Amino acid sequence: MKSRLIATLKVGAAASALLLGLAAPAFAEGVAPAAAAVQSTGQAPQGVSVPPLGFTKRVLANGLEVYSARDADTSNVTVQVWYKVGSKDDPAGRSGFAHLFEHLMFKSTTNLPPETFDRLTEDVGGSNNAFTADDTTAYFETVPANHLERMLFAEADRMGSLVVDEPTFVAERDVVKEEYRQRILANPYGRLFGLFVPETIYQDSPYRRPGIGSIEELEASSLEDVRRFHATYYRPDAAYLIVAGNFDQAQLDRWVDQYFGPLKNPTTPIPTNNVVEPEPTGPRNVTYYAPNVPLPAAVVAWPTVKYADADRAALTVLDGILSTGESSRLYRSLVYDKQIAAQIGSTPDFSQQAGNLSALAIMAQGHTAEEGIAALNEEIGKLRDTPVSAAELAEAKNEIVANTLRSRETVDDRATALGFSLINTGSAAAADEEVAQIQAVTVADIQRVARKYLTPQRQSTITFLAADDQNPASVQKMNVDAPVKVADLAPAGPPAVLLPEAERKPLPQPGAEVAPVTPTVADFRLDNGLRVLVAPTDGVPLVSARLSFDAGSSDDPTGKAGVAAMTAALLTQGTKTRTAPEIATQIEQLGASIGASAGVDFSNVYANAPSNAFPATVALMADLVKNPTFAGEELERQQAQTLDGLRVALSQPASIAGMTVGRVIYGDAPYGATITQQTVPAITTADVAAFHAARYRPSDATLVFSGDITPAAARALAQQAFGDWRPAGAAPAAATNPAGQPLAPRIVVVNQPGAGQAAVVAAVRGVSRTDADFFPLTVGNTLLGGGFSSRLNQEIRIKRGLSYGASSSLGARADEGLFTASTQTKNETADEVADLILAEIAKLGTETPTQADLAPRRATLIGGFGRSLETVDGLGALVANLALYDLPMSDLADYAGRVRAVTPEQVEAAFAEHLPVNRASLVIVGDGSKFLDDLRAKHPNLEVIEAGALNLNSGSLK
Predict the structure, then answer these.
(1) Could you say which of 102, 155, 634, 816 is catalytic?
(2) Which one of 32, 281, 364, 776 is CB 3.0 to 4.6 Å from 906, fit for a cystine?
(3) What Å distances lie between residue 562 and 159, 430, 565, CA to CA?
């Protein structure tokens, strides 16, 4: 985004965490339907409807299709342009070209200097991004509604007059190479999902090539290719313009006519690209190898149907039965019952020309990919051989309908749903028809499509293993032919250039501001001391609940890091009246999402459900909190999954750096502790039960309701669900000084031979959330590393192309927090990037920023805050965060004013006092053979620790 939307296999929450190298969270995820009367037994509710998207259509004389939908309840507007060109249209020998081009579209036009899109969006509190998929490249901005005209001007200008010069082209190509290294090479499963799965499934389709391309073919592209690509595909008759939000329809129509109406189409036609994927002639079995693969993986896959096919709905529901949630067949069989897989997942991937369904298993430690393949095949065979139950069918439909509701919560969500429908079907109505199509799927349909498409003769079977001396790393397939050739592209014509400032068309001025509204928060307590906060909103019929406790990983017993996390994980794994499978089934029947997690200072239990299913969802949530059993066999399952997650985490540079930096800053203090392969097995059911009894107490908890609920209804619901809750044990002594004493800065290199990239993190002991300098530091941190326009991203990505992105985090906590500035880069430039990060941190404490520096950063913060208010989960998180730190609810309405009041002098003084660069530590994880000599010359006192010898149980790391 300014990157690519990479299609990945759908996995459960714990699975996605595993693939990212994180310990599996406590999370039973559901999705779905509808509600009339909701029973506390968890029976499926009936009657939830997904409101229609409500867009109107007009077509300009040049062929541009314009869709618009007004929503007066928001202060924002989204502008999206979806082009009918994606990675399938990459010319032969130029894989990754559409994605590279997407990056270049953010540069210059004849009237707009480079990076203007960030000035027009981030700098006024908005956002912008883009993605490249198989069949489309989409660009989207969300801005305050009074900036709509400016965005229309800018989108029309880059459609008609993009400017790309050689230095810009080379720099952005380097950025894409870093993205390739980060997504494909540094991730242990990046090669599998990004390269090998598509090239194995498809025979002739251009979908078999990776959308991100290859380093070699990116190098082969030229500036002339770029100009010809723009001339060929970026044209009014090959685009959809979508506008949604708070605007006047007549004024919008005039602006669209003014800015887009004059654009012309080239005389050359768009190259033909309509490959019909042949039917498989037999099964395929392939084994691939890659470096640093911690656990073997198995994938089975079949070609299915294109997006517009009538069987898509049945295959989508089949996929829900197969792998959505902890009651799904793959999870129950491979993860829960047999315990042979660390995680499972699947996806029904439908595109314009073809589609596929893939199922995966990442194996548990000690189990083979062959076991995974056999188990996957067994479950697929059951779908072919035996009709699914009516209950399973209803549950899967519920999940899909509720997820559809959640995916349309904001104006940009709804515009995106329309865009995908238009690209894949050409019909706006198709998006609104999907729910009815899902509801019409029958038991017989599931078995029919399983027998038709998921057969052994049509199957591709992929085994993914760690490379070694006998089995070197598999190589990406190169020189893959494609329907479009470079010769097919339209002539570039004279190159566009940025006009002298006096000759440029002036940007329109913003209109009158539309102010966001913060809800009034009701605040009361139950007799047992539970604080209840209610933030009602208008919008889609969804409600969120968050129950927060003053207990986190800093409260873990000494030597048993992970007790807080394991306690949260086990809440969804059994109560006095429900088993773990029953809980998972009831969550998904309700169309709800319920989970729990533990942070450093606090733990949270959270739920989200359609309004009519919400009472039953809260009743279930209360049972999980009040009556967990912490069964020994469930603890063993969670321990095994967590250990597998750690094995993946310890194969990735960024994850290793994230775990290491806490020890570097806090040493052996509670804030420095992290879950390790030694602490997890040491946790007992007694530890977890004691933690819950002592720290999950109503008097120390806050329950936040947000969304489609009134304060009166919330009070009644809270009383019914939690009014009888009493503490199970004595209150623990309050923790003191979890950050410990300040430590001397360190330079630590964790050497990981063969790492695909280096992770670079600079860290400083920071401040508490209640520190008087929180807002100056927040504004300064946003200037440093918050957003695409931040100083770190400007220096590292935009100017030098050394990274896919660089950012920073203030990391405020209850005690002194963890400030970090980080990025990933190729190993050879790790030392250079470290210097750049440290220099930018130093600058904030020694040089006063200007008002011009801070104004856009303030807008970025305020805009992001405003967008959070527009989702029920985002609003609930903001309210809960204030409560956790004992801050007044008035801070919700005061946030924008507090940010605006920060002065440049306050930013410099705050950074000089709290985050001086001479107190910064540095952690670099990567292939040290490529940067250690240069780094040691600058930092002779650096410590080098081999990845295999890293001891995260000790502050010394040794």
Answers:
(1) 102
(2) 776
(3) 52, 47, 5
